[in-house]
Amino acid sequence: xxxxxxxxxxxxxxxxxxxxxxxxxxxxxxxxxxxxxxxxxxxxxxxxxxxxxxxxxxxxxxxxxxxxxxxxxxxxxxxxxxxxxxxxxxxxxxxxxxxxxxxxxxxxxxxxxxxxxxxxxxxxxxxxxxxxxxxxxxxxxxxxxxxxxxxxxxxxxxxxxxxxxxxxxxxxxxxxxxxxxxxxxxxxxxxxxxxx
Length: 196
Ligand code: HEC
Ligand code: HEC
Ligand code: HEC
Ligand code: HEC
What we know:
The protein is mainly alpha-helical. Helix content is about 40%, strand content about 0%. The protein has one domain (about 15-175): Flavocytochrome C3, Chain A, domain 2, CATH 1.10.1130.10. It contains ten helices and no strands. It is globular. The termini are far apart. The structure holds heme C (HEC) (4 copies). One heme C (HEC) binds near residues 58, 111 and 172.
């Protein structure tokens, strides 16, 4: 038992050492298209559509805008869409950007579901998602994040964020809310594994 604790402590500290902005090394990103398969219908709360219209979906695009270019020039950065100093908070894919050819996630999707909910490889299948919602399995072991203020403050911090706005967790969560409707069927995808 004791050695198990030591080993998991070691694995934890290692992953903290090697992973930028707290990324989960154990789980792979599946990309927003995968989540969309089951989370796009109005009856299930249309999480995909709400996210797409919200601030996070355009976070990569923002880095090509005038404000971003002006700020980058001040900092001696040529292209913010290629600069780790900016990408670490503007794209979910940041931890795997050196290996994009082998990933299902893209830079263009900006700050997507898995930035907040955790890399989805072990929780995205329908059986797992239903069991999670029913409280039959714990979120941690399958990589689903229990979201709190710290989840957001990884990026909503003044450090390195020249455009920092005061961040109030309760207010901010309301602005991006995408709940499963009361009595709704939840994610109503018929697909078992999220394949389109
Ligand atoms: C991976 C980094 C990241 C995480 C994690 C993150 N955000 Fe954001 N957020 C951003 C970026 C980048 C923008 C600006 C996007 C743009 O304008 O292109 C933003 C913008 C916003 C905005 C609109 C601007 C504002 O400040 O009013 C809200 C609201 C917001 N986020 C809420 C949240 C909440 C709530 C959480 C946690 C549940 C969260 N964010 C987690 C990166 C992140
Ligand atoms: C620590 C995380 C973080 C880093 C690093 C970061 N940003 Fe952001 N950025 C954010 C967040 C969060 C917002 C939304 C504003 C807010 O709520 O703080 C944002 C907003 C923006 C905006 C929109 C501002 C507006 O008023 O419309 C631009 C442009 C931007 N960032 C450019 C950059 C550039 C260029 C870099 C790299 C030099 C960068 N950011 C680095 C987190 C970050
Ligand atoms: C900026 C952070 C953030 C992003 C991006 C994000 N979510 Fe969420 N999500 C939250 C928060 C906060 C909640 C509410 C608290 C909770 O359930 O953990 C939530 C709740 C949910 C719920 C449960 C709703 C309920 O009523 O129980 C689903 C389903 C969901 N998100 C799916 C998605 C999908 C799919 C995407 C991408 C298309 C996405 N989320 C993107 C932060 C985020
Ligand atoms: C194969 C279909 C499918 C795919 C793909 C899928 N989900 Fe789900 N998801 C569901 C179902 C079904 C539920 C349960 C909803 C209900 O019963 O009300 C659910 C519930 C959730 C919840 C709430 C969990 C809880 O504990 O309450 C979150 C958060 C969530 N999904 C996020 C995501 C994210 C992020 C992705 C992509 C990485 C994703 N889902 C991909 C079908 C799916």
